[in-house]
Amino acid sequence: MTFDIGVLGGRVVDGAGNPWYLGDIGVKGKRIAEIGSIRRGECRRAIDARGTYVCPGFVDIHTHSDITAIVYPGCDSTLRQGVTTHLIGNCGSSAAPIREPYVETWKNYWGEWAGHADVWNWRTFDQYLTVLERRGVGHNIAALVGHGAVRTAVLGAARRAPKPQELGEMKDLVEEAMVAGAFGLSTGLVYPPGSFAKTREIVELCKVVARYGGMYTSHIRGERETILDAIREAILIGEKTGMRVQISHNCPKIGAWGRTQETLGLVEEARRRGLDVTVDNDVHTDLAPALRSALPQYLHELTKEELLEHLRSEENRRRIRQEIVEDKLPAFGPAGLLRHGLFDRIVLMHCPGRRDLEGKTIAQVAKARGEDPFETYFDLIVDEGDDVIAIFDYISEEDIRRLLVHPLVMVSSDCSTWSEKGPLATPPPYFPCAFGEYPGIFERYVRDEPVLTIEEAVRKMTSFPAQKIGLFDRGLLRPGLAADITVIDLARIKDRATNGWPHSHPFKNYPHRYPEGVPYVIVNGKVAVDKGRQAKVLAGEVLRHRQK
Hints:
Layout: E1 3-12, E2 21-28, E3 31-36, E4 43-48, E5 53-56, E6 58-60, H1 68-71, H2 76-79, E7 83-88, H3 103-109, H4 112-116, H5 125-135, E8 140-143, E9 145-146, H6 147-155, H7 164-180, E10 184-188, H8 199-211, E11 215-219, H9 227-241, E12 244-247, H10 260-272, E13 277-281, E14 286-287, H11 304-311, H12 314-326, H13 335-339, E15 346-350, H14 362-369, H15 373-383, E16 389-393, H16 397-405, E17 409-411, H17 433-448, H18 454-461, H19 463-469, E18 485-488, E19 520-523, E20 526-530, E21 533-534
Parallel strand pairs: 1-4, 1-5, 6-7, 7-8, 9-10, 10-11, 11-12, 12-13, 13-17
Antiparallel strand pairs: 1-2, 2-3, 5-18, 14-16, 15-16, 18-19, 19-20, 20-21
Helix pairs in contact: 6-7, 7-8, 8-9, 9-10, 11-15, 14-15, 18-19
């Protein structure tokens, strides 16, 4: 047999957790044709993999590339990490479905990203997937339908429960998505509009998904003090619908640090009862949202002008501060820093009107002004026209390590695919996970400060998430399976997306740099990264879920 590509002489890490072995891999068309001993002369293109590890392409189960895969069809930043498949539509936020009169409402949810996606001519889930297919993608894309998108399409920004007819419309939209090829339903229960939904509403939608063999993934309703109740809710939804459940990026946030034994204990107990519940997590301790993101949920619905006017009122400020401290209307994880008064862990990153403040914490600015930190926080939003971004350092690395080694936890990035150059790259946002999540894990947690073997790390990045999604032809190196292959040079691998990983200061050194030590990536039988450089091919496919 003549092979299109031969990956020769490498240490094969098969994705199942087995010890590596020396072997050759022959690729013909889009599939792995043979694994064993292959001669160079049998290959149209021979890749010398001696001294490297040859792995299945990484499958990222939690991403937000719904729009950026249109802006950057090459999927530059994630492909060059060795990722060959993204599951998009997470946290309740899929690009479709959208319906009048709420099209602009949902486009506004995506913020400036939406303005750079030059086509918004889809309405149904199938139409959106077709747009991706026609434009082409650098690596594979699989999609979830987002509860937030479905809810907005029917209810707009309403905070109430759907009426029976409206719930029926929501079910129809979910069914359309599942027929089109969605792999399941996601929720984001700490964000509007998902936060307005009761458990019963989600259960009813999940019953539709269950008929098609889909999965349920959730950014659960509480990440901090209420994290255990939130996990119980996710498990309950699985119990009531018979669906497999994926709890997204489930490292306890500030306010629940050190509770990983309890959180994972709930998952272990659910599995003993026969429920398919698993967890994913990324390994960065911080996030860089706009300051407004950590305010109570109802304020997220306001326009920029409405928010600024609202925060000019001393009475409103006093009420908001009380709501934050009492946590009556909790926002997502970083909001815990405000609740606990940890303003020294909030570093100003992007403050265009006051560049001199970039790199300082809210606590430092407040002290210099002789103000209460809450007042400084509100003042910065108002004075800078709601255009301030800060790094919130709100996750414990010890908790990350404990999750990373647990057998029921797989790796995810919580990123969007990106590029060093393009319409969203200047000024670069703080998005190190988009450029260095997977290389960073190999660099730090496998090689330099090892807590995982390379075999276990690869399992958590490949066969484990592929199995959970339902991609049984990917995530393993076996003859007959899809030829998605990543070559890792463990001695050279380096996450160049951060300055002092996992903590960095992007106002000094913006983290948009591609990694080192990923010399080859093959997607569907085509070389997409060649000697560390991205090839000019769009080898990815839009993967559609096959119904029961």
